[in-house]
Amino acid sequence: MSQKKFTLRRAEEKDLDILVDFNNRIALESEGHPLDLAVLRSSMKHILEDERKGVYWLACDGEKVIGQMMYVFEWSTWQDKNYMWLTDLYVLPEYRKQGVFKLLNQHLLDFYQKSPDIIGVRFYVAKTNTAVVPLYRRIGWKESKYNLWEVTKNDVR
């Protein structure tokens, strides 16, 4: 049986509904809660209008969108270069273990390798999303020496 050939393309305005749906699915699967769809729609619209906020790539089976990833950049004052952050990674359940993630990951790493102003690629995983950690280790990602800390408006008094 031959492996299916999937393609990648950059997300466009016509993909707004897919991005909203996939990002809500990420929250449900990884953290067990839905997102506010109006806020999510607004966020996706802003990203599609301004690549400084992020760039989405879509994996497709013919015309059907079956996966996504987004990357953003963070300037490192210590390195005088950017770190690239992978986020919003999602593949439809029925397409998992068929090479879709591999295609998205390879595209990300190819872009990184060709970009002299990017020093590294990073991403974060919800502590409760332990199922994906073996996959990341298997393909060569390693745990960072940094812990992620945050404060939100609900935390500030």
Q: Could you explain how this protein is built, in words?
A:
- With 157 residues, this protein is of the alpha+beta class.
- Helix content is 31%, strand content 25%.
- The chain contains four helices and five strands.
- It has a five-stranded mixed sheet with strand order 1-2-3-4-5.
- Helix 1 crosses helix 2.
Characteristics:
about 160 residues; alpha+beta; 5-stranded mixed sheet; globular
Rg for CA atoms: 16 Å
The side-by-side strand order for the widest beta sheet comes to 1-2-3-4-5
Globally, the shape reads globular
Largest sheet: 5 strands, mixed
What percent of the residues sit in helical stretches (DSSP H or I)? 25-40%
User: What do the pLDDT scores average to?
Assistant: 92
Strand content: 25-35%
Number of strands: 5
Tally of separate helices: 4
Series of H and E elements: EHHEEEHEH
Runs in which pLDDT lies below 50 for 5 or more consecutive residues are none
End-to-end Cα distance: 60 Å
Helix-strand blueprint:
Elements: E1 7-10, H1 16-31, H2 37-49, E2 55-61, E3 64-76, E4 81-91, H3 100-113, E5 118-122, H4 133-138
Helix pairs in contact: 1-2
Short description:
With 157 residues, this protein is of the alpha+beta class. The chain has helices at residues 16-31, 37-49, 100-113, 133-138; strands at 7-10, 55-61, 64-76, 81-91, 118-122.
